[in-house]
């Protein structure tokens, strides 16, 4: 029986290979972003829910690249509490409120010289979809990072069925498999415990 660490490392290799196969698309996104920054404009980065984690990696700090504008809407990304005030239930509701993306973008001076990176695992929640749509309406090139497998297995929350990739000029795939159901996680944990005993 394979050890859990072997499964983990095998999956890491699979993901790295999948990213490697997208080298040309990644280089194209880098060209768009560098052209934006060299023009004195901003690369706007947005993600809600856990996709905010990737947005925070672009947050300007010592040693980081200037020119990236992380758009973090706390009401969509606060994961401290599961229930109660500012809980997960509210965040999950808000990331599917039509019109919120436009309200958020009203706070920024967007130019067609800008570019955008919108991140969503499924690409099916309304706010990330509308964020990309609003950027495109302003003439901004949009790069989306999604999990194609997760997106194909998930229905869009928009009434017209459109997903994030429908409003992206370039799509990068995380190659992440579909979201893992909790029962599969429990089985993996039981297996890990058995191997450790």
Distance between the termini: 14 Å
**Got a strand count?**
5
Element pattern in H and E: HHEHEHHHEHEHEH
Number of helices: 9
- In the predicted model, the low-confidence regions spanning at least 5 consecutive residues are none
Strand content: 5-15%
Strand order of the largest sheet: 2-1-3-4-5
Helix content: 40-55%
Shape: globular
> Could you say which structural class the secondary elements and strand pairing correspond to?
alpha/beta
What's the overall average pLDDT, rounded?
87
Q: The biggest beta sheet, please?
A: 5 strands, parallel
The radius of gyration over CA amounts to 18 Å
Quick structural overview:
This protein has 197 residues and is an alpha/beta fold.
List keywords for this structure.
197 residues, alpha/beta, 5-stranded parallel β-sheet, 44% helix, globular
Layout: helices, strands, pairs:
Blueprint: H1 4-20, H2 23-38, E1 43-47, H3 52-56, E2 68-71, H4 74-77, H5 88-94, H6 100-105, E3 115-119, H7 126-137, E4 141-146, H8 148-152, E5 170-173, H9 182-196
């Amino acid at each position: 029986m394979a050890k859990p660490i072997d499964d983990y490392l095998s999956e890491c290799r699979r993901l790295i290979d999948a990213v490697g196969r997208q080298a040309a698309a990644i280089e194209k996104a880098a060209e768009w972003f560098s052209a934006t920054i060299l023009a004195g404009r901003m690369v706007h980065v947005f993600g809600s829910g856990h996709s905010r984690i990737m947005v925070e990696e672009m947050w300007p700090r010592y040693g980081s690249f200037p020119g990236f504008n992380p758009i973090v809407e706390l009401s969509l990304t606060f994961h401290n509490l599961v229930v109660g005030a500012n809980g997960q239930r509210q965040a999950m509701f808000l990331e599917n409120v039509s019109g919120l993306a436009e309200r958020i973008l009203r706070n920024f001076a967007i130019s067609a010289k800008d570019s955008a990176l919108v991140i969503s695992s499924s690409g099916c929640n309304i706010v990330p979809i509308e964020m990309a749509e609003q950027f495109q309406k302003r003439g901004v090139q949009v790069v989306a990072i999604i999990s194609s497998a997760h997106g194909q297995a998930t229905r869009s929350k928009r009434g017209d069925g459109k997903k994030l990739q429908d409003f992206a000029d370039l799509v990068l795939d995380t190659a992440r498999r579909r979201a893992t159901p909790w029962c599969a996680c429990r089985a993996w944990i039981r297996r890990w415990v058995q191997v450790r005993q």
